[in-house]
Specification:
Blueprint: H1 22-33, H2 43-46, E1 59-60, H3 62-75, H4 78-81, E2 85-87, E3 104-110, E4 119-121, E5 125-131, E6 135-139, E7 142-146, E8 151-154, E9 160-164, E10 171-177, H5 179-184, E11 190-192, H6 206-211, E12 232-233, H7 235-246, E13 257-260, E14 275-281, E15 290-292, E16 296-302, E17 304-309, E18 312-317, E19 321-324, E20 330-334, E21 341-347, H8 349-354, E22 360-362
Antiparallel strand pairs: 1-19, 2-3, 3-10, 4-11, 5-8, 5-10, 6-7, 6-9, 8-12, 13-14, 14-21, 15-22, 16-19, 16-21, 17-18, 17-20
Amino acid sequence: MARKHENYREDVPGRANVADTPERLAYYDELDGLDAGALWTVANRIEPWEPVSQSVPVVWRYRDLRDHVLRSLDLVTPEEAGRRVVYLNNPGRTDVAAAVGWIYAGLQVMNPGEAASAHRHSASAIRFIMEGEGAYTVVDGHKMTLGRNDFVLTPNGTWHEHGVEAWGSPCIWQDGLDIPFVNAMEANFYEVHPDLAQAVAYEVDDVTGAWGNPGLTPGGGAWTKGYSPLFKYEWRRTYEALRNYAECTDGSPHDGVLMEYVNPATNGPVMQTMGASMQLLRPGERTQAHRHTGSFLYQCAKGSGHSVIDGRRFDWSERDIFCVPSWAWHEHANASDTDDACLFCLSDLPVMRTLGLYREQAFGDNDGRQPLV
């Protein structure tokens, strides 16, 4: 019995609709021997009617992962591992070790007094501090002290290293990198600093003093690089800004009170390939569903609640991480009637917007809410 080609469709006009015959199958084999192929045999797969993500919605519960992350402290040293990380592996993206889409993520842990070797790479990275005291990052000579829910950049090509002060406690943070994307572009480089560490060349936390003042930039402080000069975004200032904004807006019906982290020199995204935001859901708030292109990785920074993603409910609480694949319907709800819930989000929106690929659609039925499946 002749096999049906995987993209043969009898019911869809305007798409490849070519049934297999012995003559055609022989033709395809001949083309294959020439490292070529007939477009109509793959057209329905490579040009879908709408985005078809290989990623699946997942929630990684911190209470399940935390002990395993801490256990790695006894199993491997930073010198052995390079980076002591438990990475998040989306079942649909195991081939590229991605958490969602082309975004890699993991939970990194360090003991007091430890420091990882300074290095740089083509991939851009963020760190979002989850717990512990005394964490710091050094980026191109700028040392930044880091606390809970602080967000720090290590842009592509910058020398950077991480550590925990000797007086501190074990620290865990979320890493987020565009490694899968850069690898897909076949453009990744990795280099270890020749001295294994870099000198701190500026006052500690100088980037916050220079670039972290709302509405103000340094006089004569021209910045021409493709990433933000403000390497650290503090939780205290972020939450204050969300609360101030919440007092003067109804917010988005789909995202609540949402603010994007921006490059203060351009008001654009913090880096060229990855963007970040923090959103606040008021007590009892439940958003309406929408979907858009782009991959989104959320971490609950405050409170608890749930999200409905393509009709499935995913409950989350503080420190849990969950993903929304591209073009997946999603809505969020705050579980508390008395306190805010806040979601940090890492995404590939800068790529979608720069390349003109961003599209968004609201869920039009059932008052904007998805039926559960």
